Amino acid sequence: MSSDANTPVLRNCIRLPLPEEELLEVTAKAKDYAIMHGAAMRSKTAFSPDSLNFAPFVLVPSSFPRKEFEKAVALQPIINRLMHNVAHDEEFITTTLAETIKVDEFTAGLFNIYRKVLAHGFTQKISLGMLRSDLMLESGCPELSPRALRTTAGEDAAAAVRQGAGTAAAAGTGSQEEAKEERKEHRESQLSRATRERERRATGIRSAYCCWKQVEINTIASGFGHLGPASKTIQRFVLSELGHADKLHNMPNNNALAGLCDGMVKAWDIYAKPKAVILFIIEDVSYNICDQRFHEFYIRETYPHIKVLRRTLTEVHREGKLGQAKELLLGTQEVAVIYFRAGYEPGHYHSQAEWDARYLMETSLAIKCPSIHYHLAGTKKVQQALAQPAVLERFINDPEEIKAVGKIFTGLYSLDDNEAGNASYEMALRTPERFVLKPQREGGGNNVYGVDIPDALKRMSRVERSAWILMDLIHPPLTKGYMVRPGGDMPPQIVDMVSELGIFGVVIGDAEHIVHNYQAGHMLRTKLSTANEGGVAAGLGALDSPYLIDSDDDDEQN
Ligand code: ADP
Ligand code: MG
């Protein structure tokens, strides 16, 4: 839905379509390869704890501009620090969520735990943040355009001409006359590109090679630490099978699983009790099982002295208690680190028992990922507040960093019952196709898009609106490729797709100090361009990984 006839298309990493026979053969092989390398999930339609289906995947990697990828990776430690500082700013969290918690029961439940923990003082001052910053390329972005035309077309074209002249001269292959001719041609081609780009801008045509905008930041249950790298494994195999091993160097390294699990182990080290365990909080049924078990198995294999337990919130309520120093005990086992893979949506709290279990854990000495203030810092409302002018200055000192982070936000608007909120409401009614409407929820399937927004808004009272935020729709460029799904067409058809990149970050510290802060790999999810949302577990998206390209105006090289 975020694409239209003017949506630009990123060039493919290899020439498509593939001959049918080759496509059939490589797809069948890739499906088996995916299952056998843990790129898999439990079936929702024919669930069995004893079997796995391969997770939907894109056959060959989707292109992504290298510069933008590198920018996202470089920015992650700054985003980690920003979120850490936000999580520790009691005044900011409290004011930002004040209106929302009046009408949103779930956020109010979380906030209530926060308030109680604040009243008693934090037993554990250290938090473990394992974040994932999700982003999409914005093809309507005015800031960037193809290589050599990045700022004002004239200046950059001139720079490119100088560069081109240098290359021709340095090559030293022909006479001076030839070199002159070559320079002229190069200059003409650069200038005509510059003109084309100016025209494209003037007519509102978008660029495929463009900047990115943040979709959201996840502070709880940031998934795909295993499936991110696993996607690369499948696609690397496919590219090699198709005879394109020479292209593999354009697929960036991805150590997300190790990066995230090492983060848990660093927190375990800080807790400093050799017998204490790492506890995973899980849903009643885990469909996305590989993306949890691989974490567990990595820890067990790399650090065999650290035990991992899995429990639901209900089980923690039944088995959990606090020891004398407020240590969390499950039976006789002390818990050093709690990693929440559940607890982010109302459906995970069946009764007061699960809320009590969450509170018990929050008041314990265990290091939480996330602790309650980190969870609240990841709400959409906080994201919207951060995007307001001058707010970043409260959390980041360096003006260059403020500028860099400021650029990643697209328009985010409050719908609180005040002048600004009511103006956003009117704007949404007037031009709903520009927006997505989001509640304070995680896990996909909760947003309202475009033309559906007015009806949804009109059904709400003025105060109810403050549980939601309004966001500009991002318009990513298209890629074309094969999406392979369990039970899907064989051979698969070429479809139009759009991608969402997630960059992982790990940050550990307390209100005063950050002791660890690093970027920890990435994941790429791709959906049909016609789909609003692309959750892989929800059945709409597909595993993918980035193939880094330098410019969309290079010819396809196969
Ligand atoms: P959730 O917490 O449920 O994952 P998100 O904010 O990530 O909520 O939205 C879910 C999905 O909706 C995203 O993965 C993306 O596909 C789509 N989406 C969200 N915001 C935008 C936006 N501003 N522009 C385009 N698509 C969006
Ligand atoms: Mg999301």
What would your notes on this structure say?
This protein is an alpha+beta fold and 558 residues long. The chain has 17 helices and 21 strands. The radius of gyration is 25 Å and the shape is globular. Mean pLDDT is 89; it is low at 145-175. Adenosine-5'-diphosphate binds at residues 2, 134, 215-216, 436, 438, 441-444, 446-447, 471, 473-474, 500, 533-534.
What's this model, at a glance?
It is built from 17 helices and 21 strands. With 558 residues, the protein is an alpha+beta fold. The chain is globular and about 70 Å long.
How would the blueprint of this fold be written?
Layout: H1 20-36, E1 40-41, E2 53-54, E3 57-58, E4 62-65, H2 66-87, H3 90-97, H4 100-103, H5 105-120, E5 127-137, H6 153-171, H7 176-202, E6 212-218, H8 227-241, H9 256-271, E7 277-282, H10 290-302, E8 308-312, H11 313-319, E9 320-322, E10 328-330, E11 333-340, H12 352-363, E12 367-369, H13 372-377, H14 380-386, H15 399-406, E13 412-414, H16 419-430, E14 435-439, E15 448-449, H17 453-458, E16 468-472, E17 479-484, E18 494-509, E19 514-528, E20 541-544, E21 546-549
Parallel strand pairs: 4-21, 7-8, 7-11, 11-12
Antiparallel strand pairs: 1-2, 3-17, 5-6, 5-18, 9-10, 10-11, 13-16, 14-15, 14-16, 17-18, 18-19, 19-20
Helix pairs in contact: 1-8, 5-12, 6-7, 9-10, 11-12
The structure holds adenosine-5'-diphosphate and magnesium ion (MG).
Overall 3D shape = globular
Through-space gap between termini: 31 Å
Overall mean pLDDT stands at 89
Structural class: alpha+beta
Oligomer: single chain
Radius of gyration based on Cα positions: 25 Å
In DSSP terms (H or I, runs of 4 or more residues), the helix count works out at: 17
Number of strands: 21
Q: How would a textbook summarize the main sheet?
A: 7 strands, antiparallel
Q: Helix proportion of residues, in percent?
A: 25-40%
Ligands in the model, by name, code or SMILES, are: adenosine-5'-diphosphate, magnesium ion
Low-confidence stretches: 145-175
Question: Roughly what fraction of the amino acids lie in strands?
Answer: 15-25%
